[in-house]
Amino acid sequence: MACGDHTQLKLDKVFNDPIHGHIEIPYICVKIIDTPQFQRLRLIKQLGGLYHVFPGAAHNRFEHCIGVCYLAGCMARKLQREAASHPERGIVITDVDVLCVQIAGLCHDLGHGPFSHSFDNFLEMYGNKNKIQSTQWKHETASVKMFDFLMSENKLRTDFIKDYGFKECDFIFIKDLIHPSMTDDKPDTRRDVNKSFLYDIVANKQNGVDVDKFDYFARDCYYLGLRNSFDHGRLIKFTRILKADGRFQICYREKEILNLYDMFHTRDMLHRRACQHSVSKAIQAMICEIMVYANDHIKFKGKDNRDMTMYDAATEYDMEAFYKTNDYIIQRILDSDIENDDIVAAKELILRIQTRKLYQCVYTCRSKQTGDLSVDSFTEQLNNLVDLRSSSGSLTKSDVTVVHVKLNYGQEDKDPINNIRFYNKMAPDTPVKSNSDEVSLMAVPTRFSETFYYVYSKTGNADHINTIRNLCLELENTQQVTPIKTGGLRCADRMPERDYGDRDRASRNIKFPEDTV
Fold first, then answer.
1. Which residues contact 249 (CB under 8 A, 6 or more apart)?
2. H/E element holding 233?
3. Which residues contact 136 (CB under 8 A, 6 or more apart)?
4. Main-chain dihedrals φ then ψ at residue 431, nearest 5 degrees
5. Catalytic residue among 52, 112, 139, 232, which?
6. What is the number of alpha carbons within 13 Å of residue 442 lying toward its C-beta?
7. This model's pTM is above 0.85
8. Residue from 259, 258, 251 nearest 439 by CA
9. In tens digits, what is the pLDDT along the chain, a chain of 517 residues?
10. Residue 139 annotated among the catalytic residues of the structure
């Protein structure tokens, strides 16, 4: 494949991917893959702590990013052919445009920390514990910073300019594709307004339909052993570029509405059955607490040879230190010869995970409200009841943790299909909104968001478990919540004894942040 007037120096590389089969990746992308910063993604599991619940979920960010790179190329080339067949629209998608989209897909997750999204929760937990003002850290921002660091450390910028005809605006375009808000203040660096749809291929902020989701739905379902009914290949074949709401957009054939609902249903199913599973959340909470305990004692060399903690490396965006962090932080803690209460507590929690002595979910409920019920209000009232009981028993607030989970279709409480435009074969050049009345009533949900609360006992003590359960039952009458009685999530009348012995001291009162999916 040629890029402008520059002939590709080496052939594309073929990868045998378990999800997409034998796929071709441009050699320019292979140059990025073969760097220490990208290879780091082999050591970060895609689903974080879920590997401790689903034994097959051992896949990592490395293979996911390669899959997104491939699908980004498929989508971009399909739109390139579509634009070329309609020259009257004045849209010219160049080969460099396609490469930029593929590189963005390849690098979009470079900024993830250990255990993927659990690292985001760790940062919030550590900040809450130490009363640090929120930094609003985002892994997308870290991905842009890591991309710059990767290009600089491996001296790739010159090669891209010399061999592929890249210009400075192309590097900015790649970063803009990864995290658009990073360059919103520099409109002159963006692509022509007629090509604004290119920004929706990797990270679609308009309606959530993008190749990142295409890959992780298929990949996560495969490794979790869940069924994926969404067909991304079919959807890509039915894409067109049409002008709607004042700009050119990626539109889909109207008969793909059910396929798109399948996509959002798959997203909900993945989170409901796996990512937000009560046992998965217990392990994620324990992993976050482990990192909170160990943070101040495990250091990484950053720029100017500074010793950096995980928290500081992330929030200061010190990529020299941050790229050295990965899931093996757990083994590093176990191997540490540091002797203090924090490291001892972290090691005890690791041992509890290894011996399956997990935080136990003793009560689950959902919010009755369409909007969000404050987890702080729920937790505060529960803690107040615990305080009333603490004078007559051993239960304390540090023995209880509440996890707040919000499930939705990616657009809060709205139907994302309303933000997608469609066409039909009788009028292929006319974009239209979907009409929910014409879609099967069985396919369209009546609500698009739901809020859950998981209440955990950290100690495993039977008396604690039943006391917490009874306190939660008291709250049912004062809070707008409905208990969930299915799936064994709500306690039986009497929970079995689980004595965790001296390891109880590792269960301190660290607030677990809200999770939004």
1. 197, 200, 206, 241, 242, 243, 421, 431
2. helix 232-237
3. none
4. -75, 140
5. 139
6. 0
7. yes
8. 258
9. 444 444 445 789 999 999 999 999 999 999 999 999 999 999 999 999 999 999 999 999 999 999 999 999 999 999 999 999 999 988 999 999 999 999 999 999 999 999 999 999 999 999 988 888 777 889 999 999 999 999 999 999 999 999 899 999 999 999 999 997 654 445 445 678 889 999 999 999 889 999 999 999 999 999 999 999 899 999 999 999 999 988 899 999 999 998 999 999 999 999 999 999 999 999 999 999 999 999 999 999 999 999 999 999 999 999 999 999 999 999 999 999 998 999 999 999 999 999 999 999 999 988 766 555 556 677 777 888 887 766 556 788 888 988 888 888 887 788 888 899 999 999 999 999 887 666 665 667 778 888 888 999 998 888 888 888 888 888 877 666 778 764 433 333 334 445 554 444 444 444 545 554 4
10. yes
Q: Select from 401, 406, 400 the least CA-distant residue to 366.
A: 406
Enter the tokens of residue 433: 């909104």
Report the number of secondary-structure helices (H) and strands (E) in the chain: 18, 15
Answer yes or no: are the C-beta atoms of 111 and 142 closer than 8 Å. Answer: yes
